[in-house]
Design brief:
With 413 residues, the protein is an alpha/beta fold. It is 56% helix and 16% strand.
Length: 413
């Protein structure tokens, strides 16, 4: 099972023929962190993979691949994976010859494609190169020319160099001869890559000077473009930020205006509710509540609230609810009306219901409403008279009514 992706693995996934890259490492752990996933990815893509290892390192490579890929035997039997040493490839003829190696890679690539593999993928170790051998003085020539050779084939090649074994001069040449460099966990397009014709030229120093100067100019040009692009981006960001700030201010103003409008609507609705079900004190301790129009569940709930507020505000003992102007009353609203009477009793007030129509009477009977605690009268006048009577019996003289107080004042005048 492949491990979860990391930036390094993502970069390795993007490699494809005819990439020519080098891995510069300092420990075997760093080496295998690149080389082993590199081979696994090739196997998963149906490529033929060749790993050329130092003889003393071959078993370590096998174990690392087994840990990454699993059983290697099926891949080795099918020819998808070959584990070789330098004697099987670079030094097969007893000495190193770059031209023979280019032929070797071409034939290996052609054979892989003929057998149905999608490409050839190779990874080679180079510590043995540093120990020297016949023809190895041409090794950097080989590395320099390999990029061009690979460009004409379906092969991707990884060359591995141990920084602790190779001299700084060798590592510098390695960097110059590979378009892609992996160091640590970073895969980089190589700014310091030198094409083979310049690297191998007799006046390579002069070519190097020209290339470096050209690179300096190009880098300055790119940095200038980057600065301009960054300035433009910052300008756009400032402008966009200002636009967003203005938009936020407009939105906040709209929200405040909407909140004010909603509050005004709520206030109007409250006023309408109070006007639609007025609670009128007609004398001390007596309220009259004329109800006109249809009474649904919502309005019945409002009626309850209005009546209870009126009782508390006026310390009322009698509440006359007149439903003369109500044609029909649904069962839920009728229940609310009875609940209003019960709640009024808890506050110490008696409810008198007046102006009951035949349809409302039928509704109350159908509900089986207990009217024993509720006084009903035929009309509003009878209800008011009954209210005066109840108050008188309770010791509340009618002389405190507003109307009588006004009349007494007129007589004194």
């Amino acid at each position: 099972m492949a491990p979860a992706n990391t930036p390094l693995l993502d970069a390795l996934e993007r490699l494809k023929p005819p990439d020519h890259l080098c891995s510069i490492y300092e420990t075997q752990e760093e080496q295998f962190a690149v080389a082993i996933p590199f081979i696994r990815i090739g196997l998963e893509r149906g490529e033929k993979c060749i790993y050329i290892a130092d003889a003393h390192n071959l078993e370590d490579v096998r174990e690392a691949l087994r840990a990454e890929v699993g059983d290697l035997e099926p891949a080795m039997r099918s020819g998808a994976l070959e584990l070789l040493t330098k004697e099987d490839a670079y030094m097969k003829r007893g000495h190193f010859d770059p031209d023979w190696m280019f032929t070797f890679w071409k034939e290996a690539t052609d054979a892989a494609l003929e057998r149905g593999f999608s490409a050839l993928r190779t990874a080679g170790e180079t510590e043995w190169v540093q120990r020297g051998g016949p023809g190895l003085e041409r090794w950097m020539e080989y590395e320099s020319r390999l990029t061009h050779t690979l460009s004409q084939s379906k092969c991707v090649a990884l060359c591995q160099y141990n920084r602790r074994v190779c001299s700084p001069a060798v590592i510098l040449d390695v960097i110059r001869t590979h378009p892609l460099v992996i160091y640590g966990s970073t895969v980089c397009r190589n700014f310091y890559f030198v094409p083979a014709d310049e690297f191998l030229a007799a006046d390579s120093a002069a070519s190097e000077v020209e290339r470096v100067l050209s690179s300096i100019r190009e880098r300055e040009r790119l940095e200038g473009e980057l600065r301009r692009a960054n300035d433009e981006l910052e300008t756009r960001v400032r402008e966009r930020t200002a636009e967003l700030a203005r938009a936020n201010q407009d939105l906040a103003a709209q929200i405040r205006e909407r909140q004010r409008a909603e509050q005004a609507v709520r206030s109007q609705q409250e006023a309408i509710r109070e006007l639609s079900t007025p609670v009128l004190p007609i004398r001390d301790r007596m309220l009259i509540v004329p109800v006109i129009g249809s009474v649904d569940t919502t309005r019945a709930r409002q009626l309850t609230e209005q009546v209870l507020r009126g009782i508390r505000a006026h310390r009322a003992k009698v509440v006359v609810i007149d439903v003369t102007g109500v044609a029909t009353l649904d069962t839920v609203a009728a229940n609310h009306l009875m609940l209003t009477a019960a709640a009024a009793r808890l506050l110490g007030a008696h409810v008198i219901l007046t102006g009951i129509s035949s349809s409302i009477a039928q509704t109350l009977v159908t509900l089986g409403v207990d009217l024993t605690e509720l006084t009903t009268m035929g009309d509003l006048q009878s209800g008011i008279e009954e209210g005066h009577k109840l108050l008188a019996e309770a010791g509340h003289a009618p002389g405190n009514s507003r109307a009588q107080a006004a009349a007494a004042g007129a007589e004194r005048t």
